Amino acid sequence: MLKTFQNSASMLAAYLVMGAVVGVLIIHPLNLIVVWWELSRFSETAPSLIEFLEARLWLLVLPRHFDIAIAFALVGAVVGFTFGLFTRNYVTATKAYQSLREEQTALIPDIIKGGETSRVEFKSTVRWDVKENRINRGLEKVIAKTVSGFFNAQGGYLLIGVDDDGTPLGLDKDLSTLRQPTLDAFERTIVDIVTKMLGGDLSPYIHTVFTQVGEKDVAMVIVRPAPRAVYLTDGNKTVFYVRSGNSTRSLDVKEALTYARERWS
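The chain above was modelled as a monomer; its predicted structure follows.
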């Protein structure tokens, strides 16, 4: 922990010094350019930009003008320090997020072994119909149904590329249906399904991680509880789903209103 603090302090100090240098060598000249531009607009006898900069920049080496150099060094130092704080926080957050994803990825084999529960659901594919051996976009609604059930309950894990018995099937069939057959494109497809069928405001409440189980790629969609009631449009009707046991079931209007009032009140 001490070493981390020392590294952080050293990084901030470096940004502070660089900022001070930038303040004197870049911010100050830029400020002079603005001053010259204002002067040249109202004076026909104003010197050229080069002459103006040469005359004013040399003043920084005179002792009586050190206060100007110090002022711009301080301005630059503040900017550099602020940028350093932002960079440090970004790097820290990125490392923490990466560490969390690795931990979640490592859990996938154990989650599969535990079978389907109130917070775990297995799906073989997203859009490839295994029985008919073709693309079936209607299967995307099944994914949306499961995710909405998790949203309306306590969240959960949707494992894709795994059959009902927990046997890894992989994502090859689904990937072959995408314009770009990559895991990143697969993740975007999941987000698109949620955005289109459940609401764009809910996409921050899911994220997808991948791992190999038995040499097969498996995806796990981690679903957090939604901040509002989530409805899925199914044809001409709107359906409210909730996770119940190891399945997802729909509620009628009265049940949905009662559940939503108790869940989000």
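The beta strands are 120-123, 128-129, 134-135, 156-160, 206-213, 216-223, 231-234, 237-244, 247-251.
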